[in-house]
Amino acid sequence: MVSGILAVVAIAVAVMAMYLVSQERRRFAALPRDTNVLDQIRRLDEDLALIEAAVARIQPVLKSLTDRMPGAIRYAAVVTFDANDERTGHMSRAIALLNERRDGLVITLLHGPRQSLFFTKMIRDGKGIEPLSVEEETAVERALGGT
């Protein structure tokens, strides 16, 4: 009976050992067989150094772009309308161009049968510095995510 228990324990230990060996074989199967592992590690280290150098060169450019980004146009919208009592086919436009700080301008083009007019109005924090027409206000609202 003792020998039977020892045999079962021995088989269990053997199965466990085979399982552990197979796990280690799978781990080592990922290693290259045709070259020295240390050479592979050296090459990886050299590649990492090249990547770090490239990142170091890119960082000043990224910082410069990030510093300038708040002034770049981020929000834009166009509202078409008829400035002359439905006679010209909605050829007039109010165009809002705003940056990250919600500053910018509205360009208004009024198209008429005899002439076209062009206006610009400054926008600060999403509001006109001077009074805005309904179409200009709508363009600013749409640019900032409104309806």
What can be said about this structure in brief?
By secondary structure, the protein is of the alpha+beta class.
What does this 3D model show about the protein?
By secondary structure, the chain is of the alpha+beta class. The protein has two domains: 34-69; 72-143, no CATH class. Helix content is 48%, strand content 24%. The chain has three helices and five strands; from the N terminus they run ααβββββα. The protein has helices spanning 2-29, 37-68, 134-143, and strands at residues 73-81, 92-99, 104-111, 116-124, 127-128. It has a five-stranded antiparallel beta sheet, with helices on one face. The protein starts with a helix and ends with a helix.
What is the topological layout?
Elements: H1 2-29, H2 37-68, E1 73-81, E2 92-99, E3 104-111, E4 116-124, E5 127-128, H3 134-143
Antiparallel strand pairs: 1-2, 2-3, 3-4, 4-5
Question: Main traits of this protein?
Answer:
alpha+beta; 3 helices; 48% helix; 5-stranded antiparallel β-sheet; single chain; 147 residues; elongated
Helix-and-strand structural type? alpha+beta
The largest beta-sheet arranges its strands as 1-2-3-4-5
Radius of gyration: 35 Å
Mind describing the biggest β-sheet? 5 strands, antiparallel
Topology order in helix (H) and strand (E) letters: HHEEEEEH
Query: What do the pLDDT scores average to?
Result: 84
Share of residues in helices:
40-55%
- How many structural domains can be distinguished in the coordinates? 2
Measured by DSSP, the beta-strand proportion falls in: 15-25%
Principal-axes shape call: elongated
